[in-house]
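My main concern about presentation is that the manuscript never shows what a single data entry looks like. An entry of this sort, consisting of the sequence and the corresponding backbone structure tokens, reads as follows:
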Amino acid sequence: MELQAHWWRDAAIYQIYVRSFADSNGDGEGDLAGIRERLPHLAELGVDAIWLTPFYVSPLADGGYDVADYRDVDPRFGTLEDFDALLAAAHDLDLRVIIDIVPNHSSSAHRWFREAVAAEPGSPERARYLFRDGLGPDGEQPPNNWKSIFGGPAWTRLKRPDGTPEQWYLHLFDAEQPDFDWTNPEVHDEFDDVLRFWLERGVDGFRIDVAHGMVKDPALPDIAENAKADLLDGSTTLPYFDQDGVHEIYRRWAAIVAEYPGDRAMVAEAWVEDADRIARYLRPDELHQAFNFEYLTAPWEAGRLREVVDRSLAANGAVGAPSTWVLSNHDVTRHVTRFGGGEQGLRRARAATLLMLALPGSVYLYQGEELGLPEVTDLPEDALQDPTWERSGRTERGRDGCRVPLPWTEGPSPCGFGPEGSEPWLPLPEGWGGLSRTSQRGVEGSTLELYRHALRLRRELEALGDGPMTWLDAPENVLYFEREPGVRCAVNLGEEPAEIAADGEVLAASGTVEGPSGGSLTLPGDTAVWIRA
């Protein structure tokens, strides 16, 4: 694979939710062999890299983000040899591979946690996690009032085999995901070794799960009674998120990654609302990228989106880092549905894609968005597996709706996700095959062809990718900017047609546009266009 310096500054990176991408053996779950078989499709799509969600040994209490062994592949997904074959095949296609690292917590099935449970309070084994005595005369109350992101308390009390209750342990997520204690040097050393294990196998980088959550205020203070314990809401100051100590960890990790050739990269999943706070993760001696969740959660409003773009570019530019842009991932409602669903949602999603791909920096695409997939909102209750469902008292359905397996071919389920007759781990909706890759490939105007065309132009046109942008005068509800040399992007976020000053070739459009005529171009509502200036 030909190496490109700082490839991550303008890369298009495709997120693969391993369990839902492609099932090679008919057991209903996606696997590494299935991904390897489908890599040519991603190379044809025009992306530069793939990001794999966790494939490590795990009970799958939280979709693999509960890791029991950080140095091995779960048998349901394959073997280390399968991973090596996938990595080699990706590199042969000039695709880089980023993998998830989950450092905030492990699985309760992890060897360390099993040793901690078997050990006594105050032991070295327990010091790897956040164990504390409870409050009250008999320690029957949790050490503080912290809440789990998945609902309910963030503390669970251990019981001895005879039923005698003892210490509590912290889990910001599910009870099967105990939090590490990052004040312990042994935890630092362990993750140093985990990073090296995968770097030596040849991975091109890491996506860091809950990157803002490893360090806790040592006083473990109560949170305000009305505080939201919500990973998706970075507006609240919480004593377990975005603590200054996380930056020492990333400076250490950056030094490790820099030892390896090939310009390896790290991206933070840090749900921090303030752009300046996010930029602190991207200082030259820390991480390379951070997901732009403020952009992901912004409403379909021209003024609001422009504010987010300006703020992101200014904050990241101040530390010399590129911005990243993302519309969907495995934790949020798919943007076709967020933008209104149905035909309107798809129109807006297609326009949002052209806007995102024209902005300076790198982009992350979530599997299936190139097919225009909506959120599956009517999964049967007995099929739901996200821990949020049970921990919320079955009031919040969780994230399964964006994790439904991909349709690859037309016809009935499993639509090419697995062998004919196999039953996917989440049911595919009736008619899902009509959105499949085979039903859209080569079809003019399809969402898949829009992505392929735009990603090809993004590679070919010097103006797109990393670099500056300039806002241009535009009507109300329209975003209009120029990328030098010679490319303009206009997006009409309103419902009524809008006219923009344009006199050049239309390079790409998310819908039907009129013109240019007499130096102007008419955009219908919820439409984006690229123009050669």
DSSP finds 13 helices and 21 strands in the chain. The two ends are 34 Å apart (CA to CA). The chain has a mean pLDDT of 94. The longest helix spans residues 185-201.
